[in-house]
Amino acid sequence: MLSHLAVWLAVPCAEWFVSRGLHPSPAPWQWTLEGGAFAALGLAQWRLAESLWLRTLLWPSLLVVLSGLTVAGPTAPLNWQFFYLAGLVLLVTSTLRDFGARLQVPVIVAFVVAFAAPVANRALDLDTLEGQISAGFGGIEGSSGELSFELAGAPSAPPKSGPGGPPIVVISIDTLRADAATTMQAWKRLTAMGAWWPTTLSSSSWTLPASASMQSGKTVTAHGADCVVGGSCQGMFPSVRTIAQELEDRGYLTAAFTANPWITRSTGFSRGFQTFRDLAGVPPFRLTLAGPPAGLPSQDSVVVVDQAIQWLQGTGDRPFYLWVHLLGPHMPYSHSPDPGLQTITGDQLRSGGATSPEFRAAVRKAYDDEVVYTDREVLRLLDALQAKGVFDRGIVVMTADHGEEFWEHGGIEHGHTHHREVTEIPLVIVGSGFAPGARPGVASLIDLAPTLEAVAGAPAGGFDLRQPIAPDRIATSFGNLYGGTMRSARDMAEHVIGSRLGIDSERWDRYELGRDPGEQAPLASDPNDRVQHEAASIEPPASGQKAGVNREALKSLGYAN
Predict the structure, then answer these.
(1) pLDDT at res. 54
(2) Strand partners, 505
(3) What is the largest CA-CA distance in the chain?
(4) Which of 223, 314, 507, 266 is nearest to 214 (CA)?
């Protein structure tokens, strides 16, 4: 009987082996339920099964495979789910009935197959990374590389030796409008202590290219992370170096905790991070019988901040670079009291036709509620940084990748326009060299990396925000996720947006911001205008190699059908 039970218990043992080091992991009660259920099934089979096909030791592995195929099967409509599952069960039982009497599986073979089954199941889960929506370069290629990383225990690389520098923390909040940031207590706390830029331009209208600029200090053209002509998407070019790489070379501990499925190892964001926890880019580990990890979704701000604080408490006195990217007010508004808004996505709103003023107000209210929820978690992280003494000796940054439109120009969400509500973002930096107060001039998201590298003593490959910004500076932005490619530029007085209409056709809208801050009355194109000339000079990134992005996570955020 012991060998019989060992085969059944091989499954939860293998599940523990695969999931060690992953976050979030199943709760203790789930592990207890999983182990107890498999032990009970094994004992029941030993005592009750009489037919040879019911007594076969292939049942543990078959149960795992059936579970995986059920989850990977059709999701709608419900009647197709039922027939799909019934067909699977009928096929397996019929096959065992026909061949079970002739197939006597040795215990050791059954044990190996049962142990391998959860690994195969995890590979099936991770297959959502491959051949779906494509993106990027990185240290891995598709599901096989991710599985290898997990089987190794999701290890953190050892730190390098170097001169170090002040601790540096970057908190970026997905989809945070500049005007929404000013309502946050975390923003008020940081701006009372540090420098902030009322006019800061993102490098793009959506997460992948903007976050790549944040971490590399390069424009979209230079780092390459974007959806390029032809519909394919890609991550950062292999030659692009990040803040984390520069600081790692100086002896920093480096860690990132991210919650957007575009920010992954496969899109190049893990470069230089000894600890990289991608809490949305891969599916959470799922137990065969006890299901996925209980509690909040892995990309919830509470989970991300918990992981970041846990890592922070283990840094000791070593210099460190910590990047925390919170999904925050990105749709769907899972913390809204309105059940209808808890699962709504921009894709649904864009295809839903006209909406009433009351519904639009409810959507904006749900967004604001998510900002409040995120604010609480940022404050909790700031408290941990305060207790660590980071504010006394280090640098703390709060910013966003892009903003959000709420029908100011006829649309909703982001990734489709370059108007101010989408491309202008908050930026505050606290620390030595950043005297409290608002700073004039147009800052850019690409300024962050060279500024932080210079603070750490590394060569700055761009503009250092400790220096005054020239009054006539022009910042630029490029790329959309859908709706046609755009490129734009702005200085303190003017914003110019170019929209691609065809292969050889482009529309230019110019806005005098002093007279038209809401950008409702575009001026005619003027090729001699210096801001328009700067926007027109932006080139799209070159096409490169594709890799995988978690399609299911993208679907939950409205990026994919």
Answers:
(1) 75
(2) 502
(3) 88
(4) 223
Low-confidence ranges of the chain (pLDDT < 70): 53, 72-103, 127-144, 228-231, 351-354, 501-504, 544-561
- Distances from the Cα of 57 to the Cα of 85, 130, 233, 234, 268, angstroms: 22, 32, 45, 45, 43
> 253: which 2 tokens?
């501990």
Number of neighbouring beta carbons within 10 Å of residue 302: 16
Residue with tokens 């040795």: 106
Conformational region of residue 224, where left means phi above 0, alpha means psi within -120 to 50, and beta covers everything else: left
Peptide bond into 436 cis (omega under 30): no
* DSSP per residue, 435-498: -SEE--S-EEGGGHHHHHHHHTTSPPSS--TTSPPPTT--EEEE--SSSS-EEEEE-SSEEEEE
22, 553, 550, 24: which is closest to 305 by C-alpha? 24
Name residue, tokens 């056709």: 505
Cβ of 446: how many Cβ atoms within 10 Å? 27
Contact 248, 132 (CB under 8 A): no
Q: Is 537 exposed, middle or buried (0-12, 13-18, 19+ CB in 10 A)?
A: exposed
**Tokens 């194109």 found at:** 525
What burial class does residue 363 get, using C-beta atoms within 10 Å of its C-beta: 0-12 exposed, 13-18 middle, 19+ buried? buried
Q: Which helix (H) or strand (E) holds 100?
A: none
- Token digits for 378? 């940022």
Res 430: pLDDT: 98
pLDDT at 124: 79
Structure tokens at 370: 């998510």
342: tokens are 């808890």
Q: Which two tokens stand for residue 156?
A: 């953190």
SS3 category, 245: helix
**Gap between the terminal Cα atoms of the chain:** 49
As a whole number of angstroms, the distance between CA 491 and CA 101 comes to 79
CA distance 111 to 5: 10
Quick one: 391 exposed, middle or buried, by C-beta within 10 A (0-12, 13-18, 19+)? buried
H or E stretch at 200: strand 200-201
pLDDT, tens digit, 9 for 90 and up, residues 72-87: 666 555 565 565 566 6
| Tokens standing for residue 522 | 């575009």
Do you know the residue count of the chain? 561
Token digits of residue 110: 């059954």
Question: At which residue do the structure tokens 């750490």 appear?
Answer: 456
CA distances from 192 to 24, 121, 182, 195 (A): 35, 51, 12, 8
In 245-336, at which residue ranges do the beta strands (DSSP E only) sit?
A: 253-258, 275-278, 320-326
